[in-house]
Protein: DUF4371 domain-containing protein
Organism: Erythroxylum novogranatense
Amino acid sequence: MQGLPFRGNDESENSTNQGNFLELLKFIASNNEEIRNVVLGNAPENLKLTSPDIQRDIINAAAFETTKAIILDMGDDLFSILVDECRDVSVKDFGCVIERFLGLVHVRDTSATSLLKGIKSLFSNYGLSIASLRGQGYDGASNMRGEFHGLKSLILKENSCAYYIHCFAHQLQLTLVAVAKKHLNVCSFFNTITRLCNVIRGSCKRRDMLREKQMEKVMEGLSQGVIETRQGLNQEMTLKRPEDTRWGYHFGTLINLLHLFSSVIEVLEFVGENGNDDSQRTEAIDLIDIMLRFEFLFVYLKFYRKKDQNIVNAMHLVKVSKCNLQQVRDDGWESLLKQVIKFCGENNVSEIDMQDTFIVRGRSRHRSEDMKNLHNYRVELFYSVIDM
């Protein structure tokens, strides 16, 4: 039920941890005299039914009974297949879909023909027919959705009713990332986040340091009464490595960074002063310089406020989503600016004068456009990203 492994790394008599199966068996035996005396005590050495082969047989028997129940439950109904699919962030299915995991199939390569052979082999094992197939769901790789030689096309040649649908979760994730990175400042922001994760996650010592510093801040906040205490709060956090096919990873990293910001800066300062080589120290110093700019925090807090959409909302609530975006565009500027200014004050980041001339980084002053900071942040960043 919990998906735990049966086998242990060391199942010998002298092992202090023989694995879940044997340890659970010993625990039951210690509380059940019949099992202790009959099953383990009186049985000959070769009949205790605890060998690795017997454990594999038990696992296979459980898998057989599980898949048999799935097939019996399905009966003669029509079905669809999902191969290497991705759930959307809401972890919800559409309508009354019943989704079951049927099995893993080893293939020699990922060509469409090899994948088709693997699917047919799985179908054959469980008495399923391609004629009953009504849907195919894969990602957008050419070997899956290719118009002439993709897995989709090969199955459609055998069953024209097996309609192909691109995995919506993959589509939504990739679209969000692609659109976001179309904006130069936003693309630069996410590149910085990736660099930050590489620096922090690239060393066990840095991860431990971040954990210790965050623990110190939590303990200090608790002692001063500025942090609430209840179940689920103040959990240990880390920076997830962003992945383009999982927008939730980007969003999760931004959420955690909000709480870890000052601790992350302290870790970077330590690396900048005590790094093992010049490249490490230079990278840490560059990241500190970027992260303590008003521009970085403005983009950061803007994206932190935008929760990720799940595919159900994206498909059925398009008009509502557009109205909500328009409301944010019309009324969200002032509240965002106040939030950024407050965050800057809490983290000793210099606030900028919105009426000063904006200097474009990477250009000389005489080539800069005559544009105020207010115009840059409100029009070029705030409005521009929402409009995209």
